[in-house]
Amino acid sequence: MGFFDFGTIFFLIAAVVIFFQLRNVLGRRTGSERPPFDPYSAARTNDKDAAQKSENVVSLPRKRPPGEPAPDAYAAIDAFAKPDTDLNKGLRTIKDNDPSFEPKGFVDGAKMAYEMIVMAYADGDRKTLKNLLSREVYDGFVAAIGEREAKAEKIQSSFVGIDKADIVSAEMKGGEAHVTLRIISELISATRDKAGAVIDGDPETVAEVKDVWTFARDTRSRDPNWKLVATEEED
Question: Which strand (E) or helix (H) includes residue 46?
Answer without folding.
Answer: helix 39-55
